[in-house]
Amino acid sequence: MIRIGENGSISACESYLAQIAQDPAPLLLAERLSYAAFGGSAALAQVMCTWARRSPDAELFPQFDAHRTFHDLAMRPHGLTAILMARAITGPHREDWRRAAYEAAARVSFAMDQSRFVETTKGNAVALLCADHSSLGYLTPFYAQGPQGAVLRTEVEFQQLASDVLRASVNQARADEVARYAGDVGVMMRELIDNTHRYARRDARGNQYRKSIRGLHAQTHQVEPGDIPTLTGDYAPLAGYLQGITGRFRSKHTQVLEISIFDSGPGLAARALGTELQAETPIGDEQRLVQSRFHDPKLRYGRDGAGKGLRRTVRRLKSDGGFLRLRTGRTSFYKDFHTASDAPLEPADLQLLDAASATHVATEMAKAEGTLLTLLIPLFGGRR
User: Fold this and answer.
1) Is residue 384 a part of any domain in this protein?
2) Phi and psi at residue 136, in whole multiples of 5°?
């Protein structure tokens, strides 16, 4: 049995992915999450997607502390993902817990659809999750109803959504200060949700998944230099980034916005190839396929508009002095823009670094299903 405990750091999630790769098995999932750090909540959601894909017939065994319920579990992105992706949900005495779990998931999903952000997850954060196999596969904050069905909302509407999400994700005393970030954040959110809409609902060959998940998690973090080792959970690229930006601010605390987009799709490399990658595919080939999704579609990838949203996102991160983490397939990459710049985007800006080696040579990781992008943007005093 695979045990997912209280530790939701990026490093812990890599350990969970390695366990799943070795032995797809039933999952024991603790409701309590005392430690997630930067990017941890979305990384855990990707772990849940990976477990469900690799173990389609395995059971989910939720584990609750006293007085905790399925509603508490569904209020966490990874918990809601696990409930919606699992085939069976079983209690400690072999009880069938699916009905209670689905009812809790429906309540949280309905709050997401109604834009009741404070009811979507715990803390100063917002979670929005589309379960494509359910009646809430097209959440109202992301989609409008058109003559041909659901259509993605406009860029202006996403900018308003970003403003609402930002206000719900920060301390209310500083809510008005984040309004100036809504334009950039809204554009990035729309581009990345559009990518999941286009590429994550079907497998690499274009077949509809029986179950699929696409989600967004937004949260603000307060950073003090002495807390960086704890906040990063042994993820060295993130530690280097936070150390780089803390020197840019005069205040003792640095506020950083995290926006994570995750899905249970085929992953960037498989989508670029048009078929599932084989285990014997060289990691260098997979790296090139992943990087191809950032290329200019006018040069090589105009067939499906590949990379448009990713490129625009990178350009805005460069301007804002942000950070990007990408976990897809057997690859784990990052890009550090802790020195903000308004200079035009250059080819080198689109070359991601391997998270394990900090070089351009990819390290083979345990396979993760889908794609996870975590964006970090410093707030309150960054270069604008």
Assistant:
1) no
2) -115, 45
